[in-house]
Amino acid sequence: MRYLIRRGSMLLLTLWSAITLNFLLPRLMPGNPAEVMLAKFKGKGNMGPQAIYAIKVMLGITNESLWHQYLQYWGEIFHFNFGISYTYFPYSVTHMIAQALPWTLVLIGVTTVLSFLIGTGFGIWAAWTRGSWFDMSVTSIFTFTSSFPYFWFAMIVVFILAFTFQVFPNSGGYATQMVPGFNMAFLGSAIYHSILPALTILVSSLGGWQLQMRNNMIAALNEDYVVLARAKGLPQRVLAMGYAARNAILPNMTSFAMSLGFVVSGAILVELVFSYPGMGSLLYNAVSNEDYPLMQGIFLMIVVCVVAANLVADIVNVALDPRIRRGGGEA
Amino acid sequence: MSGLAVFKPFWRNKLARTGMIIVLLLVLVAIFAPVIAPYSPYNSSFPPMLGPSAQHWLGTTQAGQDVFSQLVYGARQSLWVGFAAGTAATILGLIIGLIAGYAPGIVDDVLSYLINVFLVIPGLPLMIILAAYAPVHGSLLIIFVITVTGWAWGARVLRSQVTTLRSRDYVAAARFAGDGMLRIVFREIMPNMISLVAAGFLGAAVSAILAAAGLEFLGLGDPSINSWGTMLYWAENSGALLQGQWAWLFAPGFLIAVLGTSLVLINFAVDEMANPRLRKKA
Predict the structure, then answer these.
(1) Chosen from A155, A215, A274, A275 to mutate, greatest number of chain B CBs within 10 A
(2) With an 8 Å Cβ cutoff, are A163 and B242 in contact?
């Protein structure tokens, strides 16, 4: 429990730092991008005084003291008021994020868990049969795939499976003529459209888990308790799964939480290639239109999701590893 | 130890040897680019969107440039950005990690907190935000952004190693001899974890190469500078997919993956040095 409180407060501090960084960035940048932004907004059409106020607070176009601005900024954040998107005027940033977030959460959530499970499984098997034909080929293939730029592999997959053979759709999250809703036809179409992006992220991220699990497992297989278990004549299966793998997976759980950030980053680029209607494409559109309010809102939302996922991973870790529960373990 | 002996463990490991040869080849390609490439990468006097042929091995771009020449010259930019950002991130991580591990109390607490924050905040979104606000775009910006977001992993590993080394006798001896903290950390402790530093550098270089490609692909680099990442940016933006220009699309990413793979392969030898259990039993 003490461990969880320590990790929890650490993550809260992280969240606070990220939000503060988000506050400081537009204020510290040379050339005052925020003023330019507001001037561009005036050409877009009528905005209520409240919307203008929100943008001013988010980007820092006031003469008030920095401390006062900071308090106002927090006030807006607690009201989920991130201002109006410039690109998608007159929609609010919150509205745009609420539309994009579920797509990304489902896509990344499912593929990350799958990738972790499959990669770890391959890692266990490769370490167990170390030096065999299986180990050598799987380990070299995964070393190669884990160096793929996510977006490049996405483009290759689109080229082969969507253009050349036309087995899968090349872009979008669902068929264009459909109206989003919870019915079988729409869900089917959404799943059909998500197969290629999911496949891309899966292939590019599998290797990392496999290589790490293989290393941990090889180290665990040399531990005294495994040698003893082997000497006692325990069945191979029990030895591999119950003794070695069970301990080898623990460091992997910790890095699972940490590498979530990498998966999120990779998915941003993959979404862009597939024009997938998630946070990645939205962030790209925000950046290419210099839509600072939208950009900041998305960054905040991504950080919140990653911090939450870290917390979940920590809780799972505590459940799995009694050493952490007893107050030991590295923070 | 003579200079060449350092490379011996790398050469003995078959995978690491393969990695070293490939990296060396790519470096040679970058150095001798003017000799190898048939045209200038900026020469746009050819018909646009040609498929692969004897004159243009990998076809031409939308702007009528030779893809193969761009690929050869692009090695320069991609290697430079990858290694520069990898080195900078390693040095930053080294300094912060060593000091955090050695210094007691509040210094360690503050630095550890910084390390943890940068580990949790996802790198690419932060890079994108930083690069988007920046008034000038170019390779220095990309190196800076990757360094700022990429040092924490190495710092964390080094910090925990130092905390186990700082209670050793030779460190105590140095302290009693009156050496200052910086001297103890960098002259006494650091040489004992050089394999960790090397592994950290290789890892940082791989992620820097991938991150640079990603940022350039998003158009956050300078699209007029020729590199593997910007090649992919132009390929995507001029519809190379739709036009069936597979070579233009395939080659730059393939070389990025090959470069990343060979650095990881070299890392296998470093891993074996740091952890003798990974060595194959003779």
Answers:
(1) A155
(2) yes
Does the residue A12 lie in any domain? no
CB A207 within 8 A of CB A199: no
| A125 belongs to a structural domain | yes
Task: Compute CA A282 distance to the chain's CA centroid, rounded to the nearest angstrom.
Answer: 15
Count of structural domains within chain A:
1
CB within 8 Å of chain A, chain B residues 62-81: none
- Identify whether the C-beta of residue A310 lies closer than 8 Å to the C-beta of residue A257: yes
A2: in domain: no
CB pairs under 8 A between A and B: 148
- Residue B278 DSSP label: G
Location of structure tokens 């529960």: A325
ipTM of the complex: 0.84
Tell me which residue has tokens 């008030």: A64
Mean pLDDT across A115-142: 91
Domain encompassing residue A196: 93-327
Indicate the CATH number of B67-278 among 1.10.260.40, 1.10.3720.10, 1.20.1420.30, 2.40.128.120: 1.10.3720.10
Contacts of B256 in chain A (CB under 8 A): 147, 149, 152
Cβ atoms of A229 and A239 closer than 8 Å: yes
Cis amide prior to A90 (ω within 30 degrees): yes
**pLDDT tens readout for residues A74-113:** 888 887 777 778 778 778 888 998 888 888 888 888 898 8
- The span from the CA of B64 to the CA of B55, in Å, is 13
Q: Is residue A104 part of a domain?
A: yes
**CATH code of the domain covering residue A197:** 1.10.3720.10
Task: Give me the residues of A, 45-104, that contact B with CB < 8 A.
Answer: none
Q: Are the beta carbons of B129 and A295 separated by less than 8 Å?
A: yes
Count CB neighbours of A27 within 10 A.
Answer: 15
Residue type, A85: S
Q: CA A265, A267, A270, A275 torsion: positive or negative?
A: negative
Q: Name, in order, each residue with C-beta under 8 angstroms of B261's C-beta and a sequence gap of 6 or more.
A: A143, A144, A147, B19, B22
Model confidence at B252, in pLDDT bands (50, 70, 90)?
very high
Please choose, from the candidates B204, B209, B259, the residue with its C-alpha nearest in 3D space to the C-alpha of residue B229.
B209
Question: How many C-beta neighbours within 10 Å does residue B188 have?
Answer: 19
Model confidence at A331: pLDDT above 60: no
For residue B264, list chain A residues with Cβ-Cβ distance below 8 A. Answer: 143, 146-147
| Phi, psi at A84, each rounded to 5° | -105, 140
DSSP B135: S
pTM of the model: 0.86
CA B242 to chain centre: 32
